[in-house]
Amino acid sequence: MKDIIMKAEILIEALPYIRNFWGRTFVIKYGGAAQVRDELKESFAKDIVMLNLIGIKTTIVHGGGPKISAMMQKMGKKPAFVQGQRVTDEETMSIVEMVLGGLVNKEIVSLINSHGGKAVGLSGKDGALIKAKKKLIKKPSETGVDEIIDIGLVGEVTNVDPHVIVSLEKDGFIPVISPVGAGPKGETLNINADHVASAVASALGAEKLILLTDVPGIIDKKEKIISTLKKQQIRKLVGDGTISGGMLPKVQACLKAIENGVSKTHIIDGRIPHCLLLEIFTKEGIGTEIRA
Q1: Three-class SS string for the chain?
Q2: Contact, 97 vs 91, CB < 8 A?
Q3: Which CATH number is 16-283's, of 3.40.50.300, 3.40.1160.10, 4.10.375.10, 1.10.3720.10?
Q4: Distance in angstroms (rounded) separating the CA atoms of residues 250 and 243
Q5: How does the average pLDDT of the chain come out, rounded?
Q6: Predicted confidence (pLDDT) per residue in 92-151, tens digit
Q7: pLDDT of res. 37
């Protein structure tokens, strides 16, 4: 009987969060181990279906870097990166589109639908959803003048038109977006999924942007998770090296979303089963929340 009562108490604890978030939009960047391990795929899909059934609208932006690299190697092409960005020529872009849109996206859609959801796959090119421009990398040189490096068909978001997402959400569908966009001449550009998720959350006026990662959150110098941060604290943590490496673009994506009106952002550990429910519906949470 104690176990049954405990289950009821867990549901009651979630009640105020369900009430507060009903009808709101959450944008979730899905990647890392949660996108690779079968048991984590299942728990993610179930979390998404549950969120939608209780009235929270979810939009998913997914990555797929490891699968792209694996496919490139199968096709005899060696992946190359500059400052963490994939060098993307036309052949690589074809592989990126094939893997993200034809393999990863459809797998996520199918999994959510198998658990009773109504997911629909989209590319950033569908419905003029994501407009982008070519991204150029600046590399400091000994002359003091930055060297400009062209890494090919890599883009950064210039505009998000959310009409297609809003239309789908009105009819109870769950948009699942692959992070490519259309350039000024209609060319396809490969875009960082964290930045796409941030731009989509901003365009939708989302309540939350949630980034799934393969780390527990932002870790302090004592190896403890920082549960809550305000945006003015971020600069200090970047300056002293607490936030560095792969966490930097994620934090930048969160800050950009907050500056554009998103209420709260979260960086959470996607390796924990049902990480979304644990972060959203418990007082303690499991990752790092960043807010204005």
Answers
A1: CHHHHHHHHHHHHHHHHHHHHCCCEEEEEECHHHHCCHHHHHHHHHHHHHHHHCCCEEEEEECCHHHHHHHHHHCCCCCCEECCEECECHHHHHHHHHHHHHHHHHHHHHHHHHCCCCEEEEECCHHHCEEEEEEEEEECCCCCCCEEEEEEEEEEEEEECCHHHHHHHHCCCEEEEECEEECCCCCEEEECHHHHHHHHHHHHCCCEEEEEECCCCCECCCCCECCEEEHHHHHHHHHCCCCCCCHHHHHHHHHHHHHCCCCEEEEEECCCCCHHHHHHHCCCCCCEEEEC
A2: no
A3: 3.40.1160.10
A4: 10
A5: 90
A6: 999 999 999 989 999 999 999 999 999 999 999 999 999 999 988 887 766 667 778 888
A7: 82
Is the distance from CB of 179 to CB of 196 less than 8 angstroms?
yes
Query: Which residue has tokens 């930048």?
Result: 252
Residue type, 98: M
How high is the pLDDT of residue 146?
74
Q: Where are the chain's structural domains?
A: 16-283
**Single-letter amino acid code for the residue at 139:** K
- Gap between the Cα atoms of 64 and 105, Å rounded: 9
Split at pLDDT 50, 70, 90, the class of 269 is very high
For residue 174, the number of C-alpha atoms closer than 13 Å in the C-beta half-sphere is 32
Q: What confidence tens digit (pLDDT) does each residue in 35-46 have?
A: 878 899 999 999
Under the phi-then-psi rule, with left for phi > 0, alpha for psi from -120 to 50, and beta for the rest, what region is 279? alpha
